[in-house]
Amino acid sequence: MPCYSMMNLSASRHPTISYRPIQPADLEVLVKIHGDLFPIRYEIEFFHNVVHGRDIVSWGAVDRNRPNGESDELIGFVTARIVMAKESEIEDMLRFDKSRSDQTLVYILTLGVVESYRNFGIATSLIREVIKYASNMPNCRAVYLHVISYNNSAIHLYQKMSFLCIRRLHAFYFINGQHYDAYLFIYYVNGGRSPCSPLELVTLLVTYMRRGLKLVSARVWKKGEKNGPKRVKYRDKSCLLPMTQGKRSITIEGADSDHV
Ligand SMILES: CC(C)(COP(=O)(O)OP(=O)(O)OC[C@H]1O[C@@H](n2cnc3c(N)ncnc32)[C@H](O)[C@@H]1OP(=O)(O)O)[C@@H](O)C(=O)NCCC(=O)NCCS
């Protein structure tokens, strides 16, 4: 890939964007764009895994209307990995079917569009590709990702695409000696929704109220009984969402899998 084309990443007058898999010939540009867009330096192994499709799925965007030699050069990308739901940090956020231990998730690793091609809907299309891919896997229950808390354009994009923000993770990132919070966004597919859906919350509330009534009537019934239990405690916390989360330290060197 000639050097000048990597420096000259300006949008053509009438971009004709098309999407294709990322391939080995994209390696140099992929490394360059990641270096330009992210505060994290990814290991070269990560890029090799991307371009060779080793444990990573990816889509690239190119502008077919750029001059010769650049018309197949990446101007955007998304990379993702399939993870087992039961081994993921969001297992508790899924409607988990114990008989289906093979449930999977798609975790978006990196997403980026070079500056001169922003706000053309390219990232939206790339994420749609990921969602389509996840939806076509019958065992897949969600697409999820982390985003650093100050990345307003990315947060706006995920919200616009109906991702749900399910957690704020305190000091999740450690970049250049400083801590940053992260948001965890999720997009459910194939019915893999949270175990605390509105309907289930209502059902839970009704169950609590019924149990409360039973307790009251039990107390009235036992009133006056000398040896009866003084107090009945009810501690069902099955629907409380855990607030703790393993933090990840990311230094400027050596990160390979965290989305910012
Ligand atoms: C985030 C990013 C991928 C978006 O790419 P894009 O191709 O411009 O995205 P789209 O054109 O599909 O959509 C952009 C949306 O964000 C909005 N947006 C852009 N900048 C914004 C900002 N600073 N604040 C709020 N919204 C913003 C646009 O208006 C548009 O929304 P709209 O369709 O409602 O108008 C791109 O900005 C980027 O590569 N950033 C650097 C790398 C990065 O942060 N990656 C994400 C890591 S989580």
- Proportion of helical residues: 25-40%
* Category from helices, strands and their pairing: alpha+beta
Which outline best applies? elongated
* Molecules bound to protein: coenzyme A
| Beta-strand residue fraction | 15-25%
| Sequence stretches where pLDDT stays below 50 over 5 or more residues | 1-8, 228-257
Number of helices: 6
Count the beta strands. 7
Give, in spatial order, the strands making up the sheet with the most strands. Answer: 1-2-3-4-5-7-6
Distance between the termini: 27 Å
Number of domains: 2
Q: What is the averaged pLDDT score?
A: 81
Can you put this structure into words, describing what you see?
This protein is of the alpha+beta class and 260 residues long. It folds into two domains: 3-188, Aminopeptidase (3-Layer(aba) Sandwich), CATH 3.40.630; 197-240, no CATH class. It has six helices and seven strands, in the order αβααβββαβαββα. The protein has helices at residues 3-7, 27-37, 44-51, 122-135, 152-160, 198-222; strands at 17-20, 57-63, 74-84, 104-113, 140-148, 164-175, 178-188. Strands 1-2-3-4-5-7-6 form a seven-stranded mixed beta sheet. The two termini are 27 Å apart. The model is unreliable at 1-8 and 228-257 (pLDDT under 50). Coenzyme A binds at residues 37, 111-113, 118-124, 147, 151-154, 156-157, 160, 259-260. Keywords: Acyltransferase, Chromatin regulator, Chromosome partition, Transferase.
